[in-house]
Amino acid sequence: MKVLQKTQTIVRYRNANNQVYFGIVEGEEILQLSSSFDGIVKNELKFDGVRVSFHDVKILEPVAPSKVINFGWTYAGHAIETGGTANLKEPFLFLKPATALVPNEGDIVLPPESLTSQVEMEGEVALIIGKRGKNIKEEDALDYVFGCTIFNDVTARDLTRKDPQFTRGKGFDTFGPLGPWMVTGVDPTNLNIKTTLNDRVVQNGNTNQMSLSIPYLISWVSQIMTLEPGDVLATGSPSGSCPMKPGDVVTVEVEKIGRLRNYVR
Ligand code: MG
Question: Model's pTM, two decimal places?
Answer without folding.
Answer: 0.96
